Amino acid sequence: MDVKLGEEVGYTIRFEDVTNQAATMIKFLTDGVLLREIMDDPLLTKYSVIMVDEAHERSISTDILLGLLKKIQRRRPELRLIISSATIEAKSMSDFFQTSKKHRGPEDHELVPRKVPAVLSVEGRGFNVQIHYVVEPVSDYVQATVSTVLSIHDQ
After folding, report:
1. Rounded CA gap, 73 and 97, in Å?
2. 3-state secondary structure of 131
3. Which helix (H) or strand (E) holds 10?
């Protein structure tokens, strides 16, 4: 990207913040750090887009975060959420974030239907995995591994 880390692009992890409030446009952080930021700024007003990657790796932090993001998006319909996962059931995630209720429009006069979350699917290729075991113990497992890989490659 040809940028200096901590300027336009930065990251925040537990006990380490490599960002610049005035310059950072893209910020990588863990779900736990984002949960801590929600405690200070309940509507996450510093963000216009939030991407949760690897959502299929379910944890308490991720589940709580997704629930809070749904609540935040009700109050901030302009906040864009991107939830990505290699294996999660996209329909159930879309249903979770879709609400049937209407919300107030820009002038707070009319009720506007909420948008249906978009689902983008990119099909990948699966590769069969074969497991090979050694018949007898080996003294140099690194050499045995390299020999096995080369043997498989030659076949």
Report:
1. 9
2. coil
3. strand 9-13
By CB atoms closer than 10 A (0-12, 13-18, 19+), residue 17 is middle
Cα 79 to Cα 122: distance, rounded to the nearest angstrom: 24
What per-residue string of b and e applies to 37-73 under the rule 16 or more CB within 10 Å gives b? bbeeeeebeebeebebeebeeeeeebeebbeebeebb
Q: Which long-range contacts (CB under 8 A, 24 or more apart) does 31-35 make?
A: 31/59, 31/61, 31/62, 31/65, 32/61, 34/65, 35/61, 35/64, 35/65, 35/68
pTM of the model: 0.69
Question: Beta partners for 9?
Answer: 5, 26
Q: What is the pLDDT of residues 20-48, one digit of tens each?
A: 999 999 999 999 999 999 999 999 999 99
Quote the tokens at residue 49: 């887009």
| Backbone torsions φ then ψ of 55, nearest 5 degrees | -65, -20
Q: Strand order of the sheet with strand 16-18?
A: 16-18, 9-13, 26-29
Residues 9 and 30: their CA atoms lie apart, in Å, by 15
Helix axes 90-97, 60-75, angle to 10 degrees: 40
